[in-house]
Amino acid sequence: MKEKIYKFFESNTPTVVIKEIENSDVDVVIIENLHFTTEDDLMGILSKKKLSKENISDSDKSKFIGNLKPHETHINRDYGIQPSSTTPLSWFHHDEESLRNLSSITKEKGNNKVLILGNAGLGKTHELKHLALEIWEDKSDPRIPIYSNFKNFTTQNVLEGFIYKKWKLIDNAIFIFDGIDEIQDIKDFISKLQNFIIALEREDAIFSMVISCRTNIYESLAKSISGFKIFYLKELVYLQGKRLLKIWSGSIIDDFSFNQNHLNFLRNPFQIKRLSEYINTHNKLPSNTAILWKSYIDDRLSYDASNKFKRIDLNTPLIKSYSKKISLINELRKSNVFNPDQLFKITKNSSSDCNEFMMNPLLDKVPASEDWYFVHRNIQEYFAALTISDMEFDDIIDIIQIENTGKTNPSLFNTISFLLNILDETDEKYVPLITWFLDNEPELLFKAEGDRISPDIREKVFKNYFQKECKEKTLWISTKRSFSVPEIAIFGSVPNNLTYLLGEIEDKKNHNRVIISAINLLAFFDIPRNEIPKLKTFLIDCLRDPEYNISIKSQIIDCITKQKLSENDDEYIDSIFAIFTKDSGNEINSILLYLIEDHPNPDRFFEFIYNEFLRAEGIQPRANDDGVDRRNDYKVKGLILKLEAPENFLAIAKHLFSYESKNILTAHSSLLQSFVEKCINLIEIDNSFINNILSYIKNDTLLYSRRSILKSIINRSGTNQRAISHLLNNFTFDRISFILTSILNYDSLNIVCEKMIELGLTGETVERFRNNIAYDSNRELAQRFEDIMGEKGIVFQSKLHSKEDKQNQETAFLNRIQSNFDILFQPDRIIAEIEAIFIDNDHIPMTSNLIHDMTMKWYNENGHAGELIKPLAVLQDLSNRHGINQFDLVREKLESDEFYRMDEIMTVIQRYEKDQRKYTVSKKQKLIISEWCERTSKSIDLEKIIIWGKSKGFGLTEDFDKLKVIFFYLDHFSFILDQSFLLDCVQFFNMGISNFDNENFESLYNKINDKDLFDARVIDNVQHKRLTSFALSRHVDYALENSLKQAYPKIRDYLTNLDAHHNESKKLKLYLERSSDSSVLKDCCTNIHSSICWSAIEILVERKEEKVLCIQLAHEYLDSGKDIFISNAIKVLFYWKESDAIRELIKVVDKGLLRVLSDNKFNDYDAVESYDIIEELYEVFYISPTEGLEGNFGKTFTQTYISNLSVSDEGYEGVQSVLQRINTRLKDSGDDLFYINLLIDKSKNRHVISKSESYNFKKALKIVEQLCD
Asked: Which residues have CB under 8 Å from 1041's CB, separation 6+?
């Protein structure tokens, strides 16, 4: 179109005149689809000048991207191709360098159209704005960004009206469109967007595009967008969320202890803003997270209603109302998803209500599913609690209680937590509800905000819980994962409880677990300021008390650290360290390292840090090493890097550069970069520090192993002259030349040159050093070195290679690759060149030493990365492999043994392909290969390929090697061999010929190209040929996969007569599937000491067949005294829930065969002959247990078994009776009650859970409607 306009206006066409006026003939130019409304539009169309980064200025910025400015809150975000929530590990341990940010995504090949998805408040708009600004400011990026927000777009608008009017002049535009999920008629926009893209593509415009949309809007309304690659903006990880919160709330957050409820608010910028607003108002973290979620939900809906969906009129009351209903229904169903059909029923079949509710910004959709869910589980739990809070007291109890047990439904645990913090204290239901919890499950009050519960109740609940769990049961305070230690401590933080805890710590009659649990709680208590001096004195006295063991003292120091009792009190810290001056145990030292981790002056503790470093690295032994890895090495390294005194750092550095610490400064060490930075910082203060570092390196071996880190320190610190002088004065030149070339610069050249002259080094040494400079540093520096040494009288025998020389060398290398291949097809030429080698050496025999010397000389002259000339390589091979070292024998071998050359050609091809060398096989060469293959295939006697020995042993003739070469060429080049030959070769499948390491006949099958013939040959081979075990195995596979029924009888024989240790379970399953011959399973069970027998039994068990036989064989094997298949046998008894399975298990464990427990889970076993068997299990796995992982398997099994038995009322009573009997016996004898009380609790909890009902949707809906409507 543009060319037509140019032609029209640039031509000499007469003026256009009105019809019927004289001289009105003109040339007509038809221009279609020309639209302009202003002069600027027309001039933009007519302009021939394209806009690029070079001809636009910063003054144009607002036209392209508006008034965007860098934002202090920007955080480098990560994206994925799937919506995924972060795991706890990835959330806390995040690698910033592995991020795939938006900028890098848009630069990747094929990503010219990108769609960013993410939940509301995740930061998509900020990301798009930052991208636009980043591209605008990056002058090296040729793209010109055009940023536009389309939230006010209507059906009357055109897309072009929202972007800079001269966008058509841009040579390389990246369109960044935001706000499309806020458009009232999003489908209209999508249609216009697609037309816009089509028009750009028709004009062959260079462009790219990035748009964003909420995931729920995309899933429900915008999936018709096509041609875009979808990327999901990930949640913030812990460090990112903490960083953003600190920007908004300041350093006050450094003193906060975040619990899981707070951490949930660090994943989303919108949530973090709510958290920061609370902190900024109250100067503390909220103890009632229900307040946070209410704030988040209200603000999210309010913000969207007033900013995002102005034109849509977001129905907030409706969204909240249905969110409450759906949430409680889901909680009762133990589900976190719902589908449109269920929503339709909840809204009483109201399509309009459904549509309005689906605009809910709190929702997201499961990809490739019809299921929807709240973007955070806590939102569902909050809404469910809100719904329950509106009920009458009796209805609340009916909802949260399991039948009439007085126990709450465990699946409603978090919902109940919200309920406790939602109910207003003035609500008439509040006091009765608190009273109900006090009478039934008082510990649930830990979830209530502390100041909502009276101090006397908090005191009572706290003391009772500690008494019951820690003192009576001797469990850890942290054993029950339902409540965190900080949660319990914060709830119990009243004055009388502080006195109570100190008393429990002081009472040495208490079990260690009681004392340590009390200390753990104390670490999180809210200590009144006036109590701190007394507490510090109390704790230091405990540390001095010899009656407290190391574990207790470690916990006391941990408490001191957490409570920050030693902060700004060095005298107090010194008192602590003075107590443990003679203690080198890793447990106490680990906690001491933690104590000083954030101290502003770690040099005060250098002696301790130094000695702990020596112990952590194994340089100095520990007096009391408990063998537990507490990461002391990691902690001490962090403190080393904080040392300020150079002499202290050096004292440790000398070990880092010694063999004593081999693994500390490896290339992959996390310490490496930090260590380099530390050294550079100290060198900036005092240049002589580099001499001190180098003085610790006593030999060139250490120098070589530390060369990378030394090179980095020296070059970056600019201490090249100092370092080189030190090395030259302390090592012989030949021992340090390898590192000198990597740290040499122009300023230090004279030092090296003078030293080399002083030492009288030979020209060859000088020349080699020059070449290494060129290799390690740069050619210009090497040239300067040559000039200086030349002035001093050194004569160089060879010139310094120029860039052209290097290029020529590379060209020669590439030519040699082809030449070495080609010469193998020219026996006369290779013989002639080998003869020349003999002539040069006076026709003496080529010994291995002589050939080695010639080879090394060639590499020295041509580079060690070069491709050795083929004549020399062949000569080397003939000498080494065939013992041929005289020319006449070499010539005879090459002239008469064509196979040798073909085998060598194959070897070269394999190596070239592995090393990705570029080479060409000519048509003539392919013909030579194919003709050789054809001749050789006819000369091979396939009946004599295998030489059978006794039993199943066999040998292979040289013809087999020829067969391998033939099939290699068949796989690489397209030529045809006789079909009968190929069929005869099927019997050698999987013996090394061709690419037969794939698990099928596809390669050979394709060459034969006749399925009937191929199948017939496989059948014949199975039926009549004597095949190697590998070949037979693959024949059987093919026959089964292709249902070759004629081979089934032989396959059946094969399966039922396998060697004892030969397992073919996959073949057995496939044979059963294809043949329906179930009787084979029993026939495979004739030898209980064979693998196939147990494979057959496993299949019978899976099919629930032959129960009697399986159990009989299991018992038979267990009685045999063998143990290879003992795990299989035990598994059979447990699967069929045989009552004696437990007793057989105990027998096996008594023999020390605990692997049975690791091999099998036994998760469903609940058979019982007598509940007294539990006492035997306790004796085996708890009273005299096996240590380590296998011992833990025994405990896990016992817990699972007891839980399974406790489901029924009868089972629960039987289990509790035995467990209580064990408990009484242990108590009477003064033994530890930890594990028995743990089992008692497991049994009780499982029994309660078994009575909790999971409703289906219909019943849950009915209940909610009855209670809420």
From this structure: 1000, 1070
